[in-house]
Amino acid sequence: MQERNRHINRIHKILETANIKLSSVVTDIVGKSARQMLEALIAGESDPAQLAKLARGRMRPKIAQLQQALQGHFEPHHRFLLKETLAHLDFRKPRVGQLEQEVAERLSPFEKSLALLMTIPGISRRSATILLSELGTDMAAFPSAAHLASWVGLCPGSHLSAGKRRHGKPTKGNRYLRSVLTQIAWVLTHMSDNYLSAQFRHLRPRLGEKKAVVAVAHSVLVIVYQVLAKQEPYQDLGPDSFRRQDKEQQARRFVRQLETLGYRVELAPQEEVTPSFFPCIPSVPTLSLLTALLRDRGDSVCLREGQNSIFEGISLGTSGEFSPSDSRAWVEKQAENAAIGLVQCGIVSRYRRSGHQRHRWQSSL
After folding, report:
1. 233-248, pLDDT tens digit by residue?
2. Closest Cα to residue 188, out of 215, 161, 166?
3. 343, 304 in Cβ contact below 8 A?
4. What pTM does this model have?
5. How many other CB atoms are there within 10 angstroms of residue 10's CB atom?
6. Cα separation of 63 and 73, whole Å?
7. Where are the domains of the chain?
């Protein structure tokens, strides 16, 4: 696969030297549409309009962009180099299939280990094959996961001089394993339903994207070690593992973020906060205040029979037991949604909103 990628990169370079920007429009330079355009260039076709007409399927709407990208200076030596590179690529294509078939036959006794590795998020069969071929199935060669990480080169190096730590640059280790583990980590950055993807988002603000990817690759290697050593499938901790570990730390971080936005935050335990009317059934003081809010701004609230006695004498600021914060935005939001909560609780039989587009509170709230 690496050799194939080298030939594809050579094709990109040949086109760039001819000032043809086909890769800026086409995702796969050796796909069906792009391959036909390359064959036409080798045959001597240089008209961008004729070359763009070779586009197929989803490439058809991009004909105008293709015409601009195919305007270049394709010389005879470019044709020769492109023809030879495509010939090498075509020669290796069937060889890759034969090698994959041979690898699959030799890995047949290790299907159980492959299946265990594929329980780890982000690991495909090809990645599991590379891991198994480089590591084997017997983890007794490594006393611990830390020894394995050091051998692979996915841990900080040790450089001490005169009792001072100079830097923690990782060792070279096994470049094949380090490469595939890094690719797995990049795949995990696009996920959001597992512990490893949550670890990346947890570390990225502090370490940066690339260092966070290396840290996730190290975690994947540790998990691979444990899975192969214990011969047990991977059990994910869940995407909310970091939030469960330290709620106080999360709360402090969220408070700091709100304070930077200009808000003043006061925290209180959940059981001490008056329950909201939605979706749970509200308390009587909550209903009393919300109904008074609606009536005070001119809305019409008709209560069911037998409910009037609950709200007798209730008006803004007289609910006693219920004392919300001083925020007018909070009051307006509760008033806007109060009718929904009252109707769902079966207390209000009919509700008609007033014609006011915007209500200005004149009370102490």
Report:
1. 999 988 888 877 777 7
2. 215
3. no
4. 0.57
5. 17
6. 19
7. 2-106, 110-156+170-230, 271-352
